[in-house]
Amino acid sequence: MQAGLSFEQLTNDEKHQHFMDRINRGEKIEADDWMPDDYRTSLIRLISMHGISEIMGALPEKEWVPKAPSLHRKLAIMAKVQDEMGHGQLLLRVAEDLMAPLGKTREDIMQDLFSGRLKFHNVFHMEAPTWGDAGMIAWLVDGAAIISQSMMLDSSYGPYARALKRICAEEVFHAQHGESIILALAEGTPEQRALLQDSLNRWWKSLIMFFGPKSAKETGNSNADKNIMYKIRTKTNEDLRQEFFTKYIPRIWALGLTIPDETIHFDEETRMWVYEDVDWKEFKQIVSGNGPRSQDRLDLRRRSYDSNGWVRDALAAQKAI
Amino acid sequence: MNTESMHQQERTELKELIYQLADDDFILAYRGSEWLGLAPHIEEDVAFSSINQDMMGHASMYYHLLEDLGEGDADRIAHLRKPEEFRNAILLEMVNGRGTYLDKPDYDWAFAVVRNYFYAIHKQVRLESLRVSSYEPLANAAKKIMMEQYYHLMHWEIWFKQLVTSTDDARQRMLIAVDKVWKEFGGVLTLGPSYGEFVKAGLIEDEPLLKKRWLNRIEKVFKETGIELAGEPAIESGNGRKGEHTPDLAEALATLSEVYATNPASGW
Amino acid sequence: MGENGNQFYNVYEVFSKKTEKAPFQHQFSLLAPNADMALVMAKENFFRREPVADIWVVKRENIRGLSQGEREMLKKLDKDYRETKGYGYLKKKWRDYNQEQFTEKHIMGGREESR
C-alpha cells in the first residue's frame, strides 16, 4: 500500500492490486474487507450452493433415520444428518454475510432454492431406496465431499476456510459411520451383500458426476478456473475425481464389489485412472431440477418452510431491539 | 437393592417401571427424529436433533437395564415388541401432524413445543425422584440423564414462553396445542396399574406426589403467560401404561423396525 | 413468510471457553431473534461434541470492530523499548558482573507461564 495513505483513500485499481497482492501472499480475506465484485459473486455462488447442498443432502439420508436397524445406528445416523444440517448452517452464515451488502438474506437463499435459481449437488437429486444407500451415501458421497472440501481448507476467503475446518473435522466421523455400515453389510448375509452391490450400481454414475465436468467444454461453463485464480480452490475437477478413484477403488474391489464400468483401470503410463465418462447433458438436466427425486425433495423443503412461516413471524415479534 | 436380593414379584414391577421410562423416551425421540430437516429454521433443526438424540440415548440406557434384567437383547426389545407390549403414554406416540415424514408432512410446531415442554417438566420431576430409587442401576442412570435434561427443559421453556407471548396467531395455535396435550397428559402422569407396588419397593415416589409437583410447575408458567388452567389433565384415548394404544403407535413401530425386522439375527 | 421477511433475525456472535481456565474464543455466528434463543441454539449448534465450560452470545451490532483501513494501520512500527527483544544486551552485561539474567520464570515468581 502507498505509504501514508489510509486504505479508504486508494483508487479502485489500487484497491484491486492490494487485494490481489494479499491473496498472492497467502493472506486471508475477511467478510468486511474490500473485494472485487467478481470475487464476491464467485464466493456467493460457490458457498450458497455448498450450503444449500448440505441442507438438501440431509433429506435422502433422513429417509433412513427412523428406520435405521439398531439403537446404535439410529443414534449415529441422527447425529450424522444433524451434522449435515449444522454444516449447512455454518456455510449459509458465511454466504449471508457476503450477501448482506447486496441487501440479501437467508430468506433470499431459500426463495432462490425454491425457484430453481440456486442449484444443489447432483447426488441429492437421486433416489435412496434401501438401507444400503444410507451406507453408500455416508461412505462414498461423503468420501467424495471430503476430497473436494479439504482442497479448500486453505481458501483465500477466511470465513469459508474456518467453516470448512469445522466441517472436515466432523466428516471424519461420517466416513467411519459409513464404513461401519458398509462393512457390516459386506460381511453379512447374501441379501445384505446384494443390497450393497445394488446400491453401488445405483450411485456410481452420480459419484463420477459429483466432481463436475473435466472442463468448460462439457457443459458450456465452468467456474473452476476463476476460483483457482482467486485461490478459493486449488485443484481441477479431474484432479479431485482421480484422487477419489485412487482412494476408494482399491477398497471397493477389496470388499469384492463390482464397479459398474467394465473399462475402468489404472493406466500405469499416464498414472491416471481411465473410466467411462458420463453424459454431461444428463448432469445438467439433473441439477436443473429434473432428477428422479428433485421435485419431491424441493417440495418437502418448501412445505416445511411454508407451514412454519407463522413460527418465524412469531419469533420476529420477539426480536430484541 | 440389587437383582440377586430381589423377589420375583419385585423384579416384575421393576421391569414394568423401566419399560414405561424407556418407551416414553423412545417413542417421543422417534417422533422428534421425523422432524429432522423440517424444523422452522436451520439452527433449530440442529438443536432439536440434539435433544432427540439425547432422548433416544436415554431410552437405550433403559433398554440396556432391561437387557441386564434378562429381558433379552436391547435392540430386540426396542424393535420387535408388539404395540400392546409398549408402555409409553399415548400422547407421546401421536403423529406430528398430517402426512408422513416422507410424504407431504404438514407438521405442527405448536404441538411439538407443547408436547415436548410438558413432557420435559414431567421427566425432570420423575428423574428427581428416580435418582434416589432403591434400585441402584436405575438411580445411577437417572443421575446421568439429569445432566442432559437440564438443557432440554431450558430449550423447550424458551420456545414455549416466546411463542405463547408473541403474535395473536402464534398464541392461538399454542393454546389449541395446550388443549390437545391436556386431554392426554394424564396418560403421561400415571404410573399405571401397579404404581402402588413401585412405591412400596421404593423404586419411585407416590404418583399423586409427582403429579402435584408437575402441576405446580405448570401452574407457575401458566400464570406467568396468562393461560387458564383447565382442571386436571385427562386420559382421553386410553392408558398406554396398560398397553392400550392407537394406530399411530403400530404405524411408528412398523417404520422403525422395517429394516431390523428383515433379519434380526444378522449384524447391521 | 410474513411481512417481517428480511428483518426476521439478528446475527449473534458466539464465544466459548473450552475449560474453566481457558480464555474466551470466538466460535461462529448464528441467526436468532434474541439472546435467550441465541444461547440455546449456540449450545446445540456449536458444542455438540467438544467440551465447553462457558458460552457467550453477543449481538453483532453491539460489537465495534475495525474497518479495513483501521486494520491496515495496525501494522505499526517496531516498538522495541516495550518488548523483551529490545533488551537482549542485558544478558551479556550481567555476565560481566558474574550474574545470571533473570528469565521469565524468575520474574513470574518461579512459575512458568502456563499455556
Structure in a nutshell:
Chain A: It holds the Pfam family PaaA_PaaC. By secondary structure, chain A is mainly α.
What does this molecule look like?
- The complex is a heterotrimer of chains A (321), B (268) and C (115).
- Chain A has a single domain, classed as Ferritin, core subunit, four-helix bundle (Ferritin).
- In chain A, 65% of the residues lie in helices and 2% in strands.
- Chain A contains 13 helices and two strands; from the N terminus they run H-H-H-H-H-H-H-H-H-H-E-E-H-H-H.
- In chain A, strand 1 and strand 2 form a beta hairpin.
- The longest helix of chain A is centred in the N-terminal third of the chain and has 29 residues.
- Chain B is mostly helical.
- Chain B has a two-stranded antiparallel sheet.
- Chain C has a three-stranded antiparallel beta sheet with strand order 2-1-3, with helices on one face.
- Chain C is built from four helices and three strands.
- Chain C starts with 9 loop residues before the first strand and ends in an 8-residue tail after the last helix.
- Chain C has a domain of 54 residues: Ubiquitin-like (UB roll) (Roll), CATH 3.10.20.
- The N terminus of chain C is likely disordered.
- Chains in contact: A-B, A-C, B-C.
- Chains A and B meet through helix 2, helix 3, helix 6, helix 12 and helix 13 of A and helix 1, helix 2, helix 3, strand 2 and helix 7 of B.
Tally of DSSP β-strands of chain B: 2
Oligomer: heterotrimer
Measured by DSSP, the beta-strand proportion of chain B falls in under 5%
CA gyration radius of chain A, whole angstroms: 21 Å
Beta-strand content bin of chain A: under 5%
Taking pLDDT < 50 over at least 5 consecutive residues as the criterion, the unreliable ranges of chain A are none
Pairing-aware structural class of the strands and helices of chain B?
mainly alpha
| Rounded Rg of chain B | 18 Å
| Mean pLDDT across all amino acids of chain A | 94
* End-to-end C-alpha gap of chain B: 36 Å
